[in-house]
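I am still learning, so would you mind making up any protein sequence you like and the tokens describing how it folds?
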Amino acid sequence: MSETPTSPATLDPEVVLYLEHVRVEKRLAARTLTLYTLDLEKLAQFAASVNVPMLQLQTAHIRRFVAQMHSGGRSGRGIALILSGWRGFFIWAGRQGLIPHNPVQDVRAPKAPKPLPKALGVDDAVRLAEFDNTGADPWLEARDAAMVELLYGCGLRVGELAGLDAIPNADTQRQGRGWVDLQAGEAHVFGKGSKRRSVPVGAAATAALQAWLQLRATPFGGEGSARLDTALFVGQRGKRLTAQSIWLRLRQRSQQAGLTTPVHPHMLRHSFASHLLQSSGDLRAVQELLGHANITTTQVYTRLDFQHLAKVYDAAHPRARKKSP
């Protein structure tokens, strides 16, 4: 069925009255009024296709029209906007006593598919983690390298990373901050809802943290030590790094490492989860490490894993290769 709108002349008189009503009463902009008109012309066309007057349409008809639009490739967001226009017309018609009920009232647009989280390939993630900016300030280099190792190696959220204390004290846990126990090889963090979880810290992250801790207080010796915050990761003024600062440093570091995609902290968390799932296939373990309350949140990474497998299949399986023309 064609979706070409009918001409305004074919619209029912009630629709014309409604469009005049919204033009005068709501003082709609010309562009908005045009969109309202197009949506109602589309509804008139649908109604004509089932030989039912617009004011006699039922909810089943509307659902059928939604299905047709969706199968035709229209997005859920686009359908939602069209339904909003139709709903307004039928609300007005109900107030005028023209219909007994609104057929659009309980109809919802199809949910848009959730976009897959953006994750780095294994090679790019390792390239970023192993990047050594030899010409940089050793203090900044050690700090930024340790942050990358914790984000990718432990799957931390940026807020969890920023909230880590260098040396836990009596206030650390009470104030919902985390810490790293290098001897035990564990990071203790407080995630969403102030839920505490512990994640293992691998050898590479441990080595990077040890290198950073040896330099962390260097610029603040003597009288300057009073300016040094309790945070594990501090800026050049000795204060705790903000999440925004970590975003900026990571973006800059990924560019310096030659990655074509600007990297943000959550991308490293996604990479941690995706690469761990590819290797282990243990969805429950990944759920625990990420601190997801519901495993359905973690299951999105199975889609990433399937994409990875599909790419391997397309590249390697003889029956997947397209024959040259």
